[in-house]
Write a structure and sequence with these properties.
With 201 residues, the protein is of the alpha+beta class. The protein has three helices and eleven strands; from the N terminus they run αβββββαββββαββ. It is globular.
Length: 201
């Protein structure tokens, strides 16, 4: 370019667009990071991490997380983590398929309709697992759920699930899958009970 000449309009536009891109990249990278809070079950000796914005509620056999504060209705998506002895009344261990059928019966007792479910055998950290995908109507609203049972060597059944209205379920499923794949340990004795915040790697 000759001295004293100004950049052409297309070139000025290109430079401006490039500067805007440089300004936006750090913000986008920051938005993709999900803060997580660690959780340790002293009773069942498992640990996991859940999205820090979720609201935990302690249960008898585990913990439940709501995407929003509980306001007296059950129309919001939830993640549940828990453990229990997978035995029948005679003291014999049930198969994962039998336990999944029990969960289906429990869901029917909640007066849902048009329940459909598919089971897939899997392995989680070397332990047998069963993944169940469910779809049903709660009232007139379509819901989906992903229900995972993991059988530990000591006979304890670890249960992880995500359920919610279809649109919310699809939005939260990647976080749930990340939690199962990289933020859940079926046995983690000795970790501190107090929650502590962490960030995605």
């Amino acid at each position: 370019m000759s001295p004293g000449l100004k950049p052409s309009a297309p070139r000025r536009t290109l430079v401006f667009a490039f500067l805007c891109l440089l300004w936006l990249l750090p913000a986008n990278a920051q938005e993709k990071k999900t803060p997580w809070t660690d959780y340790h079950s002293e009773r069942w000796m498992f640990c996991a991490a859940f999205p820090s914005g979720w609201h935990p509620e302690e249960l008898f056999d585990g913990i439940l997380f709501r995407a929003k504060p509980h306001v007296g209705h059950d129309n919001d998506p939830v993640i549940t983590l828990g453990g229990y002895e997978g035995k029948n009344y005679e003291g014999h261990y049930k198969s994962l398929e039998e336990l999944a059928d029990d969960a289906q019966d429990d869901l029917r007792d909640q007066m849902v309709s048009q329940l459909r479910a598919t089971n897939t055998d899997s392995k989680i950290q070397g332990s047998p697992a069963l993944v169940t995908r469910q779809s049903y109507l709660r009232g007139s609203a379509p819901w989906s759920a992903k229900h995972i049972l993991v059988q530990r060597e000591d006979g304890v059944i670890m249960e992880l699930s995500l359920s919610g209205p279809d649109e919310e379920f699809e939005r939260l499923l990647p976080q749930f899958d990340e939690m199962v794949a990289s933020r859940f340990q079926r046995t983690c004795a000795g970790l501190p009970q107090e929650p502590r915040n962490s960030s995605s790697r």
